[in-house]
Amino acid sequence: MAHLLSTCFYSNLSSAATSCSKPSTRCSVIYPTSLTLRISQSPIKKLISHRESPPRGRSTRRSNNIITAALPVSQEASTQPSNGSHLTSKDSLKRKRVMIIGGDGYCGWATALHLSKMGYEVAIVDNLVRRLFDHQLGLASLTPIASIHDRIRCWKSLTGKDIELYIGDICDFEFLTETFKSFEPDTVVHFGEQRSAPYSMIDRSRAVFTQHNNVIGTLNVLFAIKEFREDCHLVKLGTMGEYGTPNIDIEEGYITITHNGRTDTLPYPKQGSSFYHLSKVHDSNNIAFTCKAWGIRATDLNQGVVYGVRTDETEMHEVLCNRLDYDAVFGTALNRFCVQAAVGHPLTVYGKGGQTRGYLDIRDTVQCVELAIANPAEPGEFRVFNQFTEQFSVNDLAALVTKAGEKIGLDVSTLSVPNPRVEAEEHYYNAKHTKLVELGLKPHILSDSLLDSLLNFAVQYKDRVDRKQIMPSVSWKKIGAKPKTVAA
């Protein structure tokens, strides 16, 4: 397992240099002088047992009991926000340091680059366990993913901007304490959770890991803010899946009801449909309580299903490319359908296909996070934003991909497969999502041109597709008692 972790955490770390070039410019890899890993008291402690020191190079912040690989923060970053943001120069100076927990992941990496470009001083905190999941389950991103170290070096070469890197587990409060003291964030963007419903339903051990990692990790973040950065704004990624599919309109976090002649505004009822979704419900309750009890300021972004892979920043160089999951464990619906169409596999519609959800482009994810940071919650306020731009059923998506695929010469068919999930397959769904628009969100609407781009991207990398990973393999009703790992 130690060898596996080494492969996962430090792929490409042994190479002497990485090419990352502007026109007629090359950058050399500079290693930190020391990078030390210890076994932390965390949910992944049984998976991790490895110590390694890379070659000499740039100095690294070190302290006892901290897993750290830190690059210096740029002192010359611009403070200008992107279009649509309400961030003023005064606000940017007050809230410029942003810690992104889970910054090596799909949403986190795109957000880290975007905020760095916008002039924020950015630090990524990540235990890199998402890469380990791929090794354990025999999965891989459609796109080749560089190591986090090479990604950050490439970004520095292209833009001159530094992103600090702290490698460790937020379930280890000692590590998180040292990280907070070192970076002193004004805002914490929390993407650092196991984010797959199917992964949480594989077996008992992964259900327990998901709940422990997500709930305890978030609790640690809340305590770190309370003890070390009490004015820090928490921007937490939730999920629209917390609401379930009620037969009434879904409000943004709260609902006003009248019962027996009395009226009150209460948190909207939650109906999580997997151990993953339930962990998010627990997070929301814990955050709401600490806002009330401790005066923490927090924004809960209940995000819909994300699609796409490109942002302005990730397109700058192949080393910056984001991951794109197409498998049945981590892949989201539209991304999966586009990859299936690219390789000539029928689109896998679960059950009747009437399952309706909110969707948004990855470019809108980074825009929404920036807006939340630029317009922070007040002390003691627990805000909830529903973060999506459009609603589609699974059948709607299949029809859109079929039409777009045929336009570029693909032969696209649809296959109805038994639904591995326990969910309503035909239902009412109308969720409100106005608060981010009011703050200035300029959404990227799913269009023919965007689908063409995503399909062509999938075609470009279709030789990397493992067809064995396409069909659903995790059943909600047949959840296993023992871990299932792909044999070597």
Automatic annotation (TrEMBL):
**Which InterPro entries does the protein's record reference?**
Epimerase_deHydtase (IPR001509), NAD(P)-bd_dom_sf (IPR036291)
Pfam families under this entry?
Epimerase
* Domain named NAD-dependent epimerase/dehydratase: residues: 98-386
Please, which domain of life does this record's source organism belong to? Eukaryota
In the record, the note on similarity to other proteins reads: Belongs to the NAD(P)-dependent epimerase/dehydratase family.
Q: What is this protein called?
A: NAD-dependent epimerase/dehydratase domain-containing protein
Task: State the species of origin.
Answer: Papaver somniferum (Opium poppy)
